[in-house]
Structures are given as C-alpha cells and as structure tokens.
Amino acid sequence: MSKQMTEMLKGFLEGMLLAEIARRPAHGYDITARLRELGFTDLVEGTVYAVLLRLEQRGLVDIEKVPSEKGPPRKVYSLNGRGRESLDEFWANWTFLTERLEQLHTEGEQA
To answer: In this predicted structure, what is the pLDDT of residue 111?
Structure first.
C-alpha cells in the first residue's frame, strides 16, 4: 500500500469500522479479517484496535465481553444509536466527497 493510500485510509478507518460493525456485531480480529478480505491487506490489527477503543470511548459502540477458549474474554462490538448517527454522517460526508472528487476527475480529463 502506498504512503498516500495509508494516509487516506487513516481518515476513513473509523467510518469503515462503524460500517462493518453495523453489518453484524464482531470482535476486533473478525473486523480486521473482513477488511483484509475486502483488499485492505496491509491493515495492521493494532491500528484497528486503537480505533475500536476510540469508538468505545466516544460511546459509539456497545461492548459485550464473551468468553474465549484461548485466554481472556473477547470484546464484541455492536453499533448503538450514537454509532448509527455517526455512521449516517460518515456516509453523507462520503457521498459529498466522492461526488466532488468525481467532478474534479471528470473535469480534469476534459481539460
């Protein structure tokens, strides 16, 4: 992944995690694995956990501790009402940005 892509991803990662949690409750490893399946192969698990902690601290996700066969209980993240509002705002901002970027791209090709 290029440095530019890595920097861009940092700005979108919170919304990406909220979107994945909205699909279904999951723990950090499952979320990371899913994003890697989508092509974000260089995504570092520690980065995902740092963002999940921020989401938890901001009250955007609910946590359920589920027993694990291999150590301490796992945190399973689910989206709550505040998280849904934040995700809706993310998608609205995403739509705005992508429309404007596409416009810039199209106009640039015509020039």
So the answer is: 65
Hey, where are the domains in the chain? 3-110
Alpha carbon distance 81, 96 (integer Å)? 23
Taking the CA atoms of residue 7, residue 30, residue 21 and residue 13 in that order, the dihedral angle to the nearest 10 degrees is 0
The H or E element containing residue 86 is helix 81-110
Q: How confident is the model at residue 98 (pLDDT cuts 50, 70, 90)?
A: very high
Task: List 75's β-bridge partners, or say none.
Answer: 65
Rounded distance between C-alpha atoms, residue 6 and residue 23, angstroms:
24
What backbone phi and psi angles, to 5 degrees, belong to 7? -65, -40
Domain spanning 3-110: CATH 3.90.650.10: no
